[in-house]
Amino acid sequence: MHKYIIKRLLYSVVIFFFVMLIIYVMLRCLPTSYIENIARQKSMQPGSKSYTEWLAQLEAAYGMDKGIIAGYLNWLGNFFTGNFGDSWYYTIPVVEEFNNTVWLSFIMGVIVMFFELIIAIPLGIVAATKQYSKTDYAVSVIALAGISLPTFFFASLLKLVFSVKLGWFDLFGLVGRNYARLDTWHQFLDKAHHLVLPIVTLVVLSIGSLMRYTRTNMLEVLNADYIRTARAKGLSERKVIYHHAFRNTLIPLVTIVGGSLPGLFSGALITETLYSIPGIGYASYNAMVGGDIPFSMFYLAFIAILTLLGNLIADILYAVVDPRVRLA
After folding, report:
1. Of 256, 214, 266, residue with least CA distance to 109
2. Is residue 328 scored above 60 in pLDDT?
3. Angle formed by the axes of helices 151-158 and 196-222, to 10°?
4. pLDDT (tens digit per residue) in 39-65
5. Please, is 168 exposed, middle or buried when counting C-beta atoms within 10 Å of its C-beta (0-12, 13-18, 19+)?
6. Average of per-residue pLDDT values in the chain
7. How large is the average pLDDT for residues 155-169?
8. What are the tens digits of pLDDT across the range 270-295?
9. Over 90: is that where the pLDDT of 196 sits?
10. Which helix (H) or strand (E) holds 138?
């Protein structure tokens, strides 16, 4: 086990190196450049230097006058020494802005995952045990709707119904207009109230794939020989399904749970942007649009590390849920 983990970690370092190189090259090639925008603004001031002079000066100040490979190696060295730099867009240290926004997205991610698991997995099991019934068809329709609906369309529909027509929720933002006048408890309730629609959006759009995944794997297990043997022994249907079949269905589900680790911290870029929720997804969107390379690189490096760790955790959990698995 220890040798396997060490080997996977070494592989992960190599993968991380090449993944971040690709990301850095893409960010350097984006049409939106923070430095070019600032140089353009300064060159338009009365009596100012030309755009070309300002651009050369700012590129040297921000370390962007080097080639892409040299710039990437410089960023990589700073990253591994803990020097993450300052955000160009937010004009504060990258870590500070990240810390200000990531925990809101984390709380939303945990809540969404909780509801996703308690809704999608039971419904997937019920659909599999009642194959081709009305319940199965109803669950399949809900799952396909969740998979097919675009985020911007479903979020806009919820806002139209519950914000514009019924007036139950605000259209945008995390707090209401009277937030500063409220006490601590009612401030908490005000924020929770503003998070209802974003969380509903994420839950509805995320349960579909997990529901279908659970149903498919449960059907495969229910058709196995050992399940027929268990029924032939006279075991109750409940024990056959939830004790024998469901335990083996957990093995592929571990992949989903392990792969969801980055999602807890990465935020929901589209949903947070549509609802103007100041989470890490919304912050990263503004940074990328503004050409903020330091913040974008730190955010994407963080997500890459979580993805690699999530895959490693999923592989290790295989041995926990199924003793037959040998990681070596």
Report:
1. 266
2. no
3. 130
4. 877 777 777 777 788 778 877 877 777
5. exposed
6. 83
7. 90
8. 888 888 898 888 898 888 888 888 89
9. yes
10. helix 134-148
Residue 255 has pLDDT above 60, yes or no: yes
Q: What is the dihedral of CA 311, 314, 316, 322, to 10 degrees?
A: -150
Instruction: Please check whether residue 143 lies inside any domain of the structure.
Output: yes
207 occurs within a structural domain:
yes
d(CA 28, CA 33) in angstroms, rounded, equals 8
Q: Structural domain of residue 155, as residue ranges?
A: 94-321
CATH classification of the domain holding 170: 1.10.3720.10
CA distance 174 to 200: 15
Q: Say if 201 falls within a structural domain.
A: yes
Burial per residue of 301-311, b for 16 or more beta-carbon CB atoms within 10 angstroms, e otherwise: bbbbebbbbbb
Phi, psi at 86, each rounded to 5°: -105, 145
Q: Is residue 187 part of a domain?
A: yes
Phi then psi dihedrals of residue 83, to 5 deg: -95, 95
Residues 6+ positions from 110 with CB-CB distance below 8 Å: 264
